[in-house]
Write a structure and sequence with these properties.
The complex is a heterodimer of chains A (557) and B (456). Helix content of chain A is 45%, strand content 6%. Chain A is mainly alpha-helical. Chain A is built from 22 helices and twelve strands. Among the domains of chain A are: 146 residues, no CATH class; 214 residues, no CATH class. With 456 residues, chain B is an alpha/beta fold. Chain B has one domain: Alkaline Phosphatase, subunit A (3-Layer(aba) Sandwich), CATH 3.40.720. In chain B, helix 4 packs parallel to helix 8 and helix 5 runs antiparallel to helix 7. The longest helix of chain B has 23 residues. Classes of the chains: A mainly alpha (557), B alpha/beta (456). At the A-B interface, helix 3, helix 6, helix 7 and helix 8 of A face strand 7, helix 5, helix 6, helix 7 and helix 9 of B.
């Protein structure tokens, strides 16, 4: 259930020989023989849930409710999803959300759009209509066609419910609710079958392959073309599967997948509760908070997808997009009207370069009323370099920070107190020299030249590379090998729920390929999505000893 | 597959009647005299329920500025300084001092170890690990399955992740953050006023229950298709599903009337609406006050028997408008005042937290129930995650019980734990609430020793 490094030893060697020269990736090394993990399951993230509802029923359907939180694991909420279940309170919320969605889908306004036929008598049960509707919707929600028996069961349920409530669409609505609370919808499950090409081996079903692919590239349920390909068996042919990878890579929806990955990696879920003091930072209001997130995601997708740029350049680029609320904080003029974004490029001598110098990173990794070189340095280590910064010691005294009699005026002065404390110095040495380079930006990300009247020194170093300011930090990140290896590790963990050790052959293969492809993230996604390893599974332990399959069938007394 | 009705014959017959379209109205007149003469039970024989709740605040007390130390257990709690506001409620409080969280060499993860050890009975092996269910859920398993909401989790900080109720690391309850949304869920169309004379089982509720039965029908098929590890995830899902089924079943029964239950007005102009997130302390206090008012009715109307309130998170991010540092930052950065023996600004937040607890207690005690108040039929366990935030100490973490738990406990006592594991408090709370448990916790936190001094 917890497919992380500690479970690697449990994996079964599958001896999957992969042939080079299939033309599945842009260039680079051949896919190595590797190990496979057992099949697994993950709970839909909130964003995936919302995406699916929007894709299936349109963006006018609102999803209102609270989802059980995911636990960030190996740096990603998506990895935590592979171990997460549904609490009692969480299922209650799912049920409420499901009823709300179903009621909206089948209300008088929307039902002509979604129900394939209209009955003239709402009190009469229109079985063909119900059958067609439930089969069609069930196929997309379950990411596989429902069997005839399953469709009949849902139709029968709809009939009984309609009889009870006296209204055809009420019955249909509750049957749709039953699909939306079903574990086959809420969990993305690796279903397997015997592999006809390899004796005693197991493979993912074509529909499970489709789900893996679709959630990786689009962060949503497979579209009709992909489901048809699964039905036809096309996804068991790597050649034909790669055509679907190409199709999906060419879709604008790839942006959604890339945005979802970086939102997770950069911990943008914290935007939901981001708060800045309005007295200290009057320009950083609700609109600026909203747009700060969007700005970075636009920068990322423009650079990595639209321009197919080098991932490392994300930390040095001065190109971005600007909105009016952001212009107030960045103190730049924005010509675009309200709610319109315009391309923007900071001048070459501007201290801002790279996404780590954008408001999103700076504001998220600060306190409500002041900046934090330590939080920013820690975030760069954790999020961008995959390096864990130890927790502070329990007995910690930072009173120098707040001493009104202290001559210290800048954060650098105050943090220097840690250098004299052995318990603190070890960690602060690996965070503060990074974060101090961003001290030209206050807790909201706004530029400042001085703090408490004193000039701010933004010099620092990253693993021995010295720099003078935030732009220099960006260049150091650009050049640091951990930057690219971290991205590879994170994106594969995001795709598979598995975190790979740096010595893993598969990791080395992806890293070499990433370099060979000019650090193109689209090429990396394609390499993963077109690989045999991404879809390979070891046989599951389906022993019935640990669980009483007959349990839980009786109501609670 | 047909609709399944997992009830005893009589209930099934009732529901069939409804599903057949012939709605049944169960007319039960409500009279004030439905309470028995002592006010401890409904005249019809149903005892007033005893509820359980937790109230959490971050960063504890400043040592020496919480309550007067006592060399031995005894009556009379010396509330002072940061806890002065609680003095007016001293007769319904028990204060637990000198209870520790021995870690057996494990790391003290700042602001995490304290709440995890005290609420699960096991010290975590890593940050954010929840090694066992929190006691509120064990109590909810016992007393919360017959209410509309098995538990209610509220966070006054606006952050749904500020919840300290979890079944495991990967199965955590999200907190409600909006008083208006909470009110809407509570008193929305599905609310059944227990004091209304007429009761008609809602056929939609029956269909909802059938939805869950339909899903459950495929359990065995699905379980056989996945590996052993995945079955654990699914098993948790199906357990939740069974619980929800039972909760819906309760809604099909005429609720016991309770004069204390009133449908109150929705929250308005309380400083929270439209400003649902935020840790500025006056906003948090407004949210807390609004939540307290609604929650009191959720309890009085028997919508839940178990609740968790988080006033501030474990590394309290409370702040004052216009100030650059938070409560947590202050606790580490502010110098001790040598004359007062405390950090003045940090202590100010500690005091406001206890002021809020006093408001919460006052709100619950203002609701008359029977011949007493809601607190007479409640065990509220208030606690923090550290004793002295400056050094993250997990020894002598402040805990208090509030309320009389239906007469099961004595109050007004200061209990001196003499360094015993803090799990004694949790074990006692679970036993008082009827959980069949003789021993709780692991390693040095393991205990089978109840705090008998408070047992009536």
């Amino acid at each position: 259930m917890i497919p992380v490094v500690s479970h690697l030893r449990q994996w079964v060697l599958l001896a999957l020989f992969v042939f080079a020269g299939l033309g599945l990736t842009a260039c680079g090394p051949a896919e190595p023989v590797t190990e496979s993990a057992p099949p697994d399951m993950r709970r839909l993230t909130e964003e995936q849930y919302r995406n699916i509802i929007a894709d299936v029923f349109g963006t006018t359907i609102t999803v209102s409710g609270r989802f059980d939180p995911l636990v960030r694991t190996e740096g990603l909420l998506a990895v935590g999803a592979w171990s997460t279940s549904v609490s009692s309170a969480g299922l209650m919320q799912y049920e409420e959300i499901a009823r709300s969605v179903a009621a909206q889908v089948l209300n008088e306004t929307n039902r002509p759009l979604f129900a394939p036929c209209q009955t003239s008598d709402d009190t009469a049960f229109d079985e063909p209509c119900a059958r067609q509707f439930l089969a069609k919707v069930g196929r997309v929600l379950f990411r596989r066609p429902l069997t005839d028996e399953e469709v009949s069961a849902r139709v029968s349920f709809a009939r009984r419910a309609a009889d009870s409530l006296g209204h055809f669409y009420d019955g249909l609505s509750f049957s749709l609710t039953s699909l939306l609370v079903d574990p086959e919808f809420l969990f993305i499950t690796d279903f397997t079958e015997p592999d006809p090409d390899q004796r005693d081996a197991t493979r993912l079903t074509a529909f499970s392959k489709a789900a893996r692919l679709s959630f990786l590239l689009w962060n949503t349920t497979p579209d009709d073309a992909l489901l048809i390909a699964a039905e036809n068996g096309d996804l068991h042919s790597m050649d034909r599967l790669s055509r679907h990878v190409d199709r999906m890579m060419a879709s604008p929806r790839l942006n959604n997948g890339v945005r979802a990955f970086f939102s997770d990696m950069l911990e943008f879920n914290k935007f939901d509760v981001l708060e800045k003091d309005s007295i200290i930072y009057p320009a950083f209001g609700t609109a600026a908070v909203r747009d700060a997130r969007e700005q970075t995601l636009r920068t990322i997708t423009d650079h990595l997808v639209t321009r197919n740029g080098d991932y490392r350049d994300l930390f040095t680029t001065r190109k971005t997009f600007m909105s009016r609320p952001l212009g107030m904080v960045y103190q730049v003029r924005v010509k675009a009207p309200e709610n319109v974004w315009e391309p923007f490029e900071f001048p070459a001598d501007d201290p801002r370069a790279g996404i780590q110098a954008q408001l999103s990173f700076l504001a998220l990794n600060s306190h409500p009323g002041r900046s934090s070189p330590t939080l920013r340095g820690k975030a760069i280590r954790n999020m961008l370099l995959c390096q864990r910064v130890p927790d502070p010691p329990a007995d910690v005294d930072f009173s120098e920070f707040n001493d009104p009699n202290s001559p210290s005026k800048t954060a650098r002065d105050r943090l220097s107190a840690h250098a004299t404390n052995a318990a603190c110095a070890g960690c602060h040495r690996i965070t503060d020299p990074i974060g101090l380079a961003l001290e030209n930006f206050d807790g909201s990300g706004q530029f400042r030249a001085v703090e408490n009247g004193a000039h701010i020194d933004t010099s620092g170093d990253l693993d021995g590379i010295l720099f003078a300011d935030g732009a220099g930090l960006g260049q150091a990140l650009h050049d640091n090998p951990a930057t690219t290896s971290c991205l590879v590790n994170r994106i594969y963990a995001y795709a598979s729920g598995q975190s790979l050790s740096s010595r893993n052959e598969w990791m080395a293969y992806l890293e070499e390929g990433f370099a060979a492809d000019g650090y193109s993230i689209t090429a990396l996604l394609k390499r993963i999505a077109s690989s045999t390893t991404f879809y390979a599974v070891a046989p599951a332990d389906t022993s019935e000893q640990e669980f009483d399959l007959a349990a839980n069938t009786s109501p609670v007394e | 597959m047909g609709i399944r009705y997992p009830y005893p014959t009589s209930r099934r017959a009732l529901l069939r009647g409804v599903l057949a379209g012939s709605a049944i109205t169960v007319g039960v007149p409500f009279l004030d005299s439905l309470l028995n003469s002592s006010g401890t039970a409904l005249a019809v024989g149903t005892p007033l329920p005893v509820r359980f709740g937790t109230w959490f605040w971050g960063l504890g007390h400043t040592p020496g500025h919480g309550v007067d130390a006592k060399a031995a257990t005894g009556s009379g709690i010396g509330f002072k300084g940061e806890t002065q506001a609680l003095a007016t409620h001293r007769d319904i409080i028990n204060y637990f001092g000198k209870f520790n969280a021995p870690l057996d060499g494990r790391s003290n993860y700042p602001h995490a170890t304290g709440w995890i050890a005290s609420r699960t009975g096991t010290a975590p092996d890593k940050q954010d690990d929840v090694p066992a269910p929190t006691y509120d859920l064990l109590i909810a398993d016992k007393i919360g399955t017959r209410n509309r909401f098995k538990t209610i989790d509220l966070s006054c900080t606006g952050n749904p992740r500020h919840s300290y109720s979890a079944r495991s690391t990967y199965n955590r309850n999200a907190a409600e953050v909006s008083p208006a949304a909470f009110y809407g869920r509570l008193f929305g169309p599905e609310f059944v006023d227990p004091n209304k004379a007429e009761f008609t089982p809602d056929p939609r509720t029956m269909v909802r229950q059938s939805v869950l039965s339909a899903v459950k029908d495929d359990r065995q098929k699905l379980m056989r298709q996945v590996g052993v590890s995945d079955r654990a995830q699914l098993d948790e899902y199906f357990t939740s599903l069974r619980e929800l089924e039972t909760q819906l079943e309760v809604q099909l029964q005429k609720p016991a009337p309770n004069k204390a239950c009133l449908v109150i007005d929705p929250p308005q102009d309380d400083g929270v609406q439209g400003n649902e997130t935020g840790v500025e302390i006056t906003r948090v206090e407004a949210s807390h006050k609004s939540f307290a008012r609604i929650l009191a009715m959720a309890v009085a109307c028997n919508q839940t028997s178990v609740f968790n309130v988080v006033f501030s998170d474990s590394n309290s991010s409370l702040r004052r408008a216009g100030e650059s540092v938070t409560h947590h930052s202050l606790s580490h950065e502010e110098r001790m005042d040598p004359e007062l023996g405390l950090q003045q600004q940090t202590s100010w937040f500690n005091t406001r937290s206890m002021d809020a607890l006093a408001v919460f207690i006052g709100t619950l005690s203002s609701i008359r129930e029977g011949d007493g108040t809601l607190l007479d039929n409640m065990l509220l366990l208030a606690g923090s995650e550290t004793s002295f935030a400056k050094n993250h100490s997990v020894d002598d973490i402040p805990f208090m019980t509030v309320g009389k738990a239906g007469g099961r406990i004595k109050t007004g006592l200061h209990i001196n734990g003499n360094g015993d594991p803090v799990t004694r408090v949790g074990l006692t709370a679970m036993q008082v609430m009827g959980v069949s448990i003789d021993s709780w916790g692991s390693r040095s936190l393991q205990t089978s020793k109840s705090v008998n001094d408070i047992l009536a």
